[in-house]
Specification:
Layout (H helix, E strand, L loop, with lengths): L10 E4 L7 H7 L2 E2 L3 E3 L15 E11 L12 E7 L6 E5 L2 E2 L6 E10 L4 E10 L2 E11 L6 E10 L5 E10 L14 E8 L3 E8 L10 E10 L2 E3 L8 E10 L4 E12 L6 H16 L3 H19 L2 E3 L2 H17 L26 H13 L2 H12 L2 H10 L21 H4 L4 H17 L8 H16 L1 E3 L4 E3 L17 H18 L4 H7 L3 H13 L4 E2 L4 E2 L29 H6 L8 H7 L6 H12 L9 H11 L3 H12 L21 H10 L3 E3 L2 E4 L9 E8 L2 E8 L2 E8 L3 E5 L2 E5 L2
Helix pairs in contact: 4-18, 5-6, 5-9, 6-9, 6-10, 9-10, 9-11, 10-11, 11-13, 15-17, 17-18, 17-19, 18-19
């Protein structure tokens, strides 16, 4: 655990700069607008260690899979997000010397991410010889116009001598990925154009041998300043620069605004169309002031916060944590583009390749259902439907029928090169089916499940029916050779969670098939023999259980391990994944994240209080929470069991996972999909929110350290406010038709 930022309700702010924490601070101050994003690296020269990362939604490259022993069915490539052309690059020179905080003497440092405004500012005072200047950088990625990046730099002479100032504004196509199999550039610069106060670069991803699309990106900058534009030579064939100069007397200041329009071939059929759009958008922005652009951006964020903000009184750490979660989640995805999804690192780093995982369906869908318009979540479901062809391919690679949705993907084709993930972590098929159910249950909208969703469910069910095998000895269907959500267990037999989801998916699909239209049923073409086989699997699925402990056994053989609780592990050996060999982890009983408890959370109303208690008490003692997705689920279950202190402890861990660097791995990017955890813990945990038979239920409690909390929730065309304080819980209908909810077993009617 390491805290590098101060605790504040709306700001991620620090007044300290330590070069050893540079990457950590870059991750924490990342910005995004759903279309693109960037780490909080410095715009200007910095000669120390840094990860300069800018990423564009849906732009990726197939990095060749490299393994020592090739296994049949391995994906040919591992998809990687591409580090984009650097369009925020700048140089600031004082009396001919560049500012470089890795070398310069400076003071009054402040780095401040304003989450309410989605604005990043950085300021410091630097001394170079007899010159002393105060420098302030500001930047935001507009959510009012997603192709727009805006920067502003202000330099003030705070010394007693005249200062010669030069500011260079650049776009540089000479970039590389840090996380790649081989050290090469992924962009070929197609053209450049350099003026005196503007410039652009068009670049295309390099050719690949796998037939995946190449992407073209265009970046055009316009600069506005009170300095004098200088005509300078182009630095290289990959970079354009505009240079501005002036002299500052003591107390004088100068300012440079940089607006960049970013477009990609994902939205344009030809390079000509892309270039025209880039110019037109740049022209539109040119007529607006910095304040106009910032105000439009702030208004969109204000609307988002109005729906989603969770207010916590009495615990500023908890307040900062939940807002940071929501801010980074919305910076990554807000549903504008159904072609996109939510990568585990979002736009904050290169780990996990920027691809889509099962995290979206299991963890993000419940949150987006509660705080956005239903079409946002529907887009996430459509994302999978549109990639069915890839899912067919993945199943065929394993010699199986139906559809296997990928563990890691950009285009529906599996592109992960670890055997235990690619081939074995097949529970993701069930998680996607559950997301369809979750959307339908929450919204009451059956239009997806009875059409596109029924197709997805049918093809997943065909996969499960082929993947199971029948054990003559046990007279049960089983699933061998899998990895469950707990990735510290590989190649196990009969993972309870996987078997449960396979059984449930088949059962749910059979129910939906009774409701689809005759036309849809004809297209799905599920025979009566198939239905009977599916029902037989449902009726005879093996689900490991131990009657003495009254627990669902995580997988065959789990109880034969050396069962010692986490409390017996020396502190200096945690986290395990940074201290133990993989072999030692696999042999241990230690659980990376909820596995059995993940299933109990999914179907929380289907288990008795005794079942929930015995399973939580047993598995919690062995869980190290070294997955960022883990603490929130345990928090909800702890709250359900009235283990209130434990629920709050786990909320604090999930809400501040990156802010406090709990797992010592935030340097390479934030855990974006885990940013759902704070909302899940508060709303499903502390407030006890459930949807039962189309009706909202709550059973709130107030954490001891808090004096009050409130949140707003979107539900079936209503906006409901939930307010919990020491006097109890209070509910208000902000928008929509009257609705009756259940609060701790009592019906409460809400009207405006």
């Amino acid at each position: 655990m390491k805290r590098t930022f101060e605790v504040a309700p709306w700001n991620i702010v620090t007044h300290d700069f330590d070069s050893e924490d540079k990457r950590l601070q870059e991750s924490m101050t990342s910005l995004g607008n759903g279309y693109m994003g960037m780490r909080g690296f410095f715009e200007e020269d910095y000669s120390g260690d840094t990860l300069n990362g800018i990423y564009l939604g849906g732009v990726w490259y197939p990095d060749k899979t490299r393994v020592g022993w090739w296994k049949n069915g391995y994906p040919d490539y591992f998809g990687k997000v591409v580090n984009a052309v650097n369009f925020i690059k700048m140089h600031v020179k004082i009396n001919g010397e560049v500012i470089d905080l890795a070398k310069d003497q400076f003071s009054d440092f402040e780095l401040n991410l304003d989450m309410k405004k989605a604005l990043l500012t950085r300021s410091f005072t630097v001394t170079k010889g007899d010159a002393k200047v105060a420098v302030k950088f500001e930047r935001f990625l507009s959510v009012a116009q997603q192709e727009l990046s805006v920067q502003r730099v202000t330099v003030q002479n705070v010394g007693s001598n005249k200062v010669d100032l030069v500011m260079d504004s650049a776009i540089d196509g000479d970039v590389k990925n840090e996380d790649a199999n081989y050290d090469e550039r992924f962009w070929e610069v197609l053209s450049t154009e350099q003026g005196t106060d503007s410039g652009n670069v068009l670049a295309e991803t390099t050719p690949n041998p796998f037939g995946t699309p190449r992407f073209t990106s265009g970046m055009e900058m316009r600069n506005v300043t009170d300095l004098t534009a200088e005509k300078v030579a182009q630095p290289s064939e990959k970079e354009v620069v505009n240079e501005f100069s002036g002299a500052l007397a003591p107390n004088e200041s100068a300012q440079l605004e940089k607006r960049v329009i970013v477009v990609t071939s994902r939205d344009y059929d030809t390079q000509a169309a892309l270039t025209d759009a880039m110019h037109q958008l740049s022209d539109q922005v040119a007529g607006q002031s910095y304040d106009d652009l910032l105000t439009a951006h702030e208004q969109v964020w204000a609307d988002r916060w109005n729906k989603s903000d969770i207010v916590i009184d009495g615990d500023t750490e908890a307040q900062q944590g939940i807002r940071f979660n929501l801010f980074q989640l919305f910076s990554t995805y807000y549903g504008e583009d159904s072609r996109l999804n939510i990568g585990p690192k979002g736009f904050t780093g290169e780990k996990y390749g920027g691809a889509t995982y099962w995290d979206t369906e299991a963890f993000a869908v419940p949150v987006y259902l509660g705080i956005t318009d239903p079409k946002v979540t529907r887009n996430l479901l459509m994302y999978r439907y549109k990639q069915l062809d890839g899912a067919y391919h993945n199943a065929k690679q394993q010699g199986l029928k139906g559809a296997l949705f990928p563990m890691v993907t950009f285009d529906g084709i599996e592109c992960h090169n670890e055997w235990e993930i690619t081939f074995e972590e097949i529970h993701r098929n069930g998680d996607i089916a559950f997301a369809i159910y979750n959307y339908t249950r929450y919204t009451g909208d059956t239009s997806y499940v009875l059409n596109e969703g029924s197709k997805v469910l049918t093809e997943i069910s065909r996969f499960w029916a082929d993947r199971v095998h029948y054990s003559q000895r046990n007279q049960n269907y089983m699933i061998h050779g899998v990895t469950g959500p707990d990735e510290y267990e590989n190649n196990v037999d009969n993972n309870w969670y996987t078997n449960l989801l396979a059984q449930w998916t088949l059962k749910y699909t059979l129910e939906i098939l009774k409701e689809v239209s005759p036309e849809q049923a004809k297209q799905l073409n599920v025979s009566e023999d198939e239905k009977k086989h599916w029902q037989d699997i449902v009726d005879n699925m093996y689900l490991p259980y131990d009657k003495d402990l009254n627990i669902f056994v995580q997988h065959d053989g789990f109880l034969d391990k050396d069962l010692k609780p986490v409390s017996e592990i020396p502190a200096d050996q945690l986290p395990l994944n940074q201290n133990w060999s993989w072999d030692k982890i696999l042999r241990s009983p230690y659980i990376k994240q909820g596995d059995v408890l993940q299933g109990i959370w999914d179907f929380i109303d289907d288990f008795t209080p005794e079942q929930k208690k015995s399973n939580f008490d047993f598995y919690e003692q062995y869980t190290v929470h070294e997955s960022s997705l883990s603490p929130a689920i345990y928090s909800v279950l702890a709250a359900d069991l009235h283990y209130e202190d434990k629920a709050v402890e786990l909320y604090e861990r999930t809400a501040r996972l990156d802010l406090d660097n709990y797992n010592n791995d935030t340097v390479d990017g934030l855990h974006i999909t885990a940013m759902t955890g704070g909302w899940i813990a508060v709303v499903q945990g502390f407030a006890g929110m459930r949807v039962r038979d189309g009706k909202l239920h709550y059973a709130p409690f107030l954490p001891k350290k808090w004096s009050h909390y409130s949140f707003r929730q979107v539900f079936r065309d209503r906006l409901i406010e939930v307010d919990v304080d020491q006097d109890g819980s209070h509910f208000k209908l902000i928008d929509g038709e009257p609705i009756t909810i259940d609060v701790a077993g009592k019906a409460v009617e809400l009207t405006k």
